Every structure is written in C-alpha cells, then in structure tokens.
Amino acid sequence: MKKTISNLLNKGDSRFVLLKKNVAVSFMLKGIGLLIGYIRFPLTLSYLGNAWYGVWLTIGSFTGWLSFFNIGLGNGLRNKLAESLAQNNIEDSKKYVSSTYFVISLISLGIYIVLVPIIFWIDWNSVFNVQDVSPSILKVSLFSFVTFFCVKFVLRLLRTVFEADQKPAFSDLIDFLSSVLFFIAIILLINYAESSLVYVVTIHGSLPVVLLVGFSLYYYNNSYKSIRPSLKYVDRKLLKGLANLGVKFFIIQTSVLILFSTDNIIITRVLGPEEVVGYEAARKFFGIVDMGFSIILVPFWSAFTDAYTKGEINWVRQSIMRLLKLLSLVALGLVVMFFASPWVYKVWLGDKVEISWQLSLFMAVFVLIRAWSNVFIYFINGVGKVKLQLLLSIIISVVNIPLSVMLAKHFGVVGVIMATVACLIIGVFIYPIQYFKIIRKKDKGIWGQ
C-alpha cells in the first residue's frame, strides 16, 4: 500500500509531482485540523460560556474585513514572485519580497495607529450587548486581538512566498500547528484557569505569530536566504507593477465577497431569519465538495505561472485536462450527494429544518459551476490577465443583489441561489474562451490584459 501511494505521488514530471505531494499533505493537514476544530468547539464553548463565546466569534469575524487592507498585494506578490523565480531572477525576486514587506508593514502600522485609540474610546459593552461586566475585559481583549493581527498581517507574507514557490502545504502546516497548539491550550485553560476571554483571544492571536516568527527565521536563513527581505531592495518601480496587479485582485476579491456574503442578509430581509438556517445547512453540505476541490486547485495557481513563464504550454493543457477529468468525478459526487441529501439532513438536523429538493439541486449546480469556472480562473489568475474577470466580477456583484431580491419574492429561498447561478453562468463560457485565446496567443485586447 505504501509503495503504491509512493509510486502514485512520484509519477509524472517534477512540477506535477511537487503539486501532487502538496495536495496530499494539504488534504491530510486540513482534514485533521477540521476534526480538531469540531472537537475543540464544545470545549471552548464550555470554557467561555455562550455569551463570551459569541463575543469571541464576533471579534474573530473582524479578521476577514481587516485582511482586505492587504489591497491584493499578497496575490500580486504571488504572481510576480512566481514569475521571477521561474526566470531564476533572484534580484527581482528579492526586490518583490522586500517591497511587499515594506508596504504591508506601513499599512499594518497605520491600522494599528488608527484602531488602538478607537478600542479605548468606544463603549464595547453596548456594541456586543454584554452588560454587568468590566469594560476593561473587552478593551484588553480587543487590544490583544488588534496587536497580534497587525504583527501577523506582515509575517503571513511568508505564506505567500511558500505559495509562489509551489509549496502551499507549508502554509497549511502553520495553520495545522496553530490549531493543535490552541487545542492543547484550551484543555490547559479548562483545567488550570478561570474562564477568561482575554486568555483565549491572546493565546489564539499569539500562537500563529510565534509560529510565523519561527518559520520566517528558519526559511529566510536557509531555503529563502537569497530572497530575504531587506530595506536596501525596496524598489518603487517594481512596486508599481505589483500594486497595479494587486489592486485588480483586490477589486475581484471585494466583488466576490459581496456576491457570496449578501445572500443571508437578503434572505433575512425578504423572507425572515428562520429561512437562513436551511439555506446555510444546504450550503455547508454541498460546500464540502467546493472546499475539497479548492484544496486541489490552490497549488495549480503558481504552477500555471511557472509553466506559462517558461513557455511550457503543453504542461498547462495537460493540467487543465486532468482537472476537467477530475471535475467529472466532482459532478458524479454532487449527484450522489443530491440524492442522499434528504437522509443526510434527517440524520444531521432531525426535524428542526426543512430543506426542499429544489434548494439542494440548485446548490449542487452552484458548486459545479463554480468548480468548472475555477479550473480556468486559476490559470487566468496565474498568468495575471485578470481585467476581464475584474469587469465581470463587478457587474455580477451589482446585478446579483436586485436579482436575488426579485427571485426570492417569487420562488422563496431557492430564488436566492437561482440568482447566483444565473449570474455565474456567463463565466462558464467566458473563462474557457479566454483560456484558449491565451494559450493560442490570440489574447488581444481585454482578453490578454
């Protein structure tokens, strides 16, 4: 068995072997990490209690929004660094890394200077609707959160370097170790400390920082010593190209966030909050496939950059074909999940929530459409020709909201996912066309920008 797995992983060219090993390791780490997360959930809940646990989740949700201050520079670095590494241009690689660390450090410092006074000025007891507790608990917790977030905001660029070097599994390793250590910390807190939001926020924030410091010191003094960030290598000219690409990715990410984060708000406003539960349950169930396919796609991004930069178009074609063959298995899996969904919902949720077969059907179609489009989008992102995707993302995010409201009024909760499917369907045709134009060197005008 061990020999069979080894032969399977080592079959193919060096790039594809590296890719398969990263996917295998990422699946293992994310799978175990997910299991640890499910086990940790009730432990953390019992330690903090319902109210404080809710506050902690709310504080944690700020991470996603604050991360947007990255303004796409991470993805810009991922592309530019992968290109320069493919060309064996160490000097430009060092300049890209140094320039990005410099700008992100300035942004992080700005976030910190702005947020710290706000933390001690706002009445957080009212914001979180937590009464009869010392305001200092919330203020200290938020101060701890912001402090570690701003430090991690800079240090996590190492993850981008891993991804550009086609080693995303190392990023997953950092997440995995952080999750394991936090799990151990929760067990220790339960046994040796009184319930404290400050302890949980501080430990949860500090662990990834400590790990990132350790990984950065090791890799920037060993494997990545030649591209270690330095103020001497901050380059304004290279930074301009990096920022232009980064801003495009930022706009795309913002549009996608609007597209996928407004569904629950629309359902609540049009149909009532009780309808959100079934919608979220269906999305989580079919989202398992979406998450699994995303793990497979992640290393392809920089692999496509590397292959395209080196002119290895045949490798790109072969990889796309492999992904499309895999997509047929995804489609088959979604069909099985659709027919099994009534039984799964029954076992999972009991009689608490009623989910129609129409909602399950459109959720499965949504996942399939997204997976199909992402096969080509990851290539397009890898080569950095994203202007068309940017324009489509903006249009779709604007159209989706009124269309979702209109269809929700006519078809109920199913109408919301119908609107999303309708908006995404154009990408099913546009992105493959752009892919073929790029590899055939016929990407004139907006197709190649």
Mean pLDDT: 90
How many DSSP H or I helices?
Answer: 17
- Gyration radius from CA atoms, angstroms: 23 Å
The proportion of residues forming helix, as a percent range, comes to over 70%
The succession of helices and strands, N to C, reads: HHHHHHHHHHHHHHHHH
User: Distance between the terminal alpha carbons, to the nearest Å?
Assistant: 47 Å
What is the beta-strand fraction? under 5%
Point out poorly predicted stretches.
none
What structural class do you assign from the helix and strand content? Answer: mainly alpha
Largest sheet: none
Instruction: Give the strand tally.
Output: 0
The geometry reads as globular
List keywords for this structure.
449 residues; mainly alpha; 17 helices
Set down the secondary structure blueprint.
Blueprint: H1 2-9, H2 14-48, H3 50-66, H4 73-86, H5 90-121, H6 124-127, H7 135-155, H8 157-164, H9 169-192, H10 197-219, H11 236-261, H12 263-270, H13 274-309, H14 313-349, H15 357-383, H16 387-411, H17 413-439
Helix pairs in contact: 2-3, 2-9, 2-13, 4-5, 4-8, 4-11, 4-13, 5-7, 5-11, 7-10, 9-10, 11-16, 12-16, 13-14, 13-15, 14-15, 15-17, 16-17
